[in-house]
């Protein structure tokens, strides 16, 4: 069974149609790359999946559970939306770390706040907190940031910030981790360290959707690539096919802009 | 003819009494204007056009006219126009009127600083909190509040220091604050008349209290400098 099913998602802002009839599925443990020029709707699609935007119509299912159905008019309560959101993680282009917290606190914070809702929070407050800290610490080790845990975001490089942000998203164990142009705000020499981390996650079969302009990376890491154009899926398939033998003229034009891929 | 040295204890005693009134007005204004400013800030950011219009007009009027006129209107208007003096007689009535005028005036200034602080936080902070499953109140208290406080400390420090000196405007309705106390020795009070130095001497009180405030506010600013 597909881990994610997206059916006929449309999104309009006023009269502008940003997404028109987007449908796709993805399997657990695979990596999906979204490519396309600016304004093609890639980011809006990610934001819809993370409930930062509400699709105008369409259905989103995760593990067979319908998380969103525009045809069912429901005023979901905040608590319910929050629970649904946790199926997804999102890594932002601009990191959006919390500046007043250390790297470790950034990673541990949301988990601790969620633990407040557990029934045993009152009795086991200390041990739960301890557990969260250890988990956060372990994640930062995995990101190669063992010696940066007590640093504040402004003391870290862009690449380090983004790796903290990835650890922060992983801490809540999302089913699907989304990346919105994770290296676009970085100096070229810092993109490598972030891409390496994402690649290692792919090797460990984390389910991921990556919006990126790094074509070589999209080709090498993704199991599937989707080329979006003007709010539609123009072409979708195995990266080798799409990159080497694009079927649509629009895809060819787009890829021609990235010489040497 | 007394020497200044002989006059000193009498003058200091009177100035101290005046200064207590100055401090009372200062602290009461802060206590009232901090929360009222937040309410006005919320109003000026409201999604309701009418509410936003009303609060922004209020802020425009209050910031656009002299505090001295506001003091005079609030103190005299009810009695002269409606023949309903709502302020009790004497010093306590004057204090109440002054406190109301100052609180409204400073709340309007604070509200604009708050609004800048709230709107200055990048929307990405809210979104990061949301995708991490935080509630709106958790995002406000755990993520945004400290960033907001950090952003507003410098402009608020400015306003707070201005307030120390602005309290002297209450002299216009004869509130017996420190300027009033200093001036009284010009006309004659407690056997001293024609002395202008007590009025000048009040400046020392302002300088010292603003010096102390500046140090405290700088400390607060420094304590928040561990993040950017």
Could you outline the blueprint of secondary structure elements for this entry?
The complex is a heterodimer of chains A (about 260) and B (about 230).
Chain A: E1 4-13, E2 16-26, E3 31-35, H1 42-49, E4 57-62, E5 65-69, H2 78-85, E6 88-91, H3 103-115, H4 121-142, H5 158-170, E7 176-180, H6 188-203, E8 208-211, H7 215-221, E9 224-229, E10 232-237, H8 239-244, H9 249-256
Helix pairs in contact in A: 3-4, 3-5, 4-5, 5-6
Chain B: H1 4-44, H2 49-64, H3 67-82, H4 90-119, H5 123-131, H6 136-166, H7 178-187, H8 197-223
Give a short summary of the structure.
By secondary structure, chain A is of the alpha/beta class.
Name the CATH class of chain B. Mainly Alpha
Name the quaternary structure.
heterodimer
User: Quick one: how many beta strands of chain B?
Assistant: 0
- Going by CATH, the homologous superfamily of chain B would be MetI-like
Radius of gyration of chain A: 19 Å
C-alpha Rg of chain B, in Å? 22 Å
What does it look like?
The complex is a heterodimer of chains A (261) and B (228). With 261 residues, chain A is α/β, with parallel strands linked by helices. In chain A, 39% of the residues lie in helices and 24% in strands. Chain A has nine helices and ten strands. Chain A has helices spanning 42-49, 78-85, 103-115, 121-142, 158-170, 188-203, 215-221, 239-244, 249-256; strands at 4-13, 16-26, 31-35, 57-62, 65-69, 88-91, 176-180, 208-211, 224-229, 232-237. A six-stranded mixed beta sheet of chain A has the order 6-7-8-3-9-10, with helices on both faces. A four-stranded antiparallel beta sheet of chain A has the order 2-1-4-5, with helices on one face. In chain A, α3 runs antiparallel to α4. The two termini of chain A are 33 Å apart. Chain B contains eight helices and no strands. Chain A binds chain B through residues 50-52, 78, 82-83, 85-86, 88-90, 92, 94, 96-100, 109-110, 113-114, 152-154, 168-169, 172, and chain B through 122, 124-125, 127-136, 138, 142-143, 146-147, 150, 226-228.
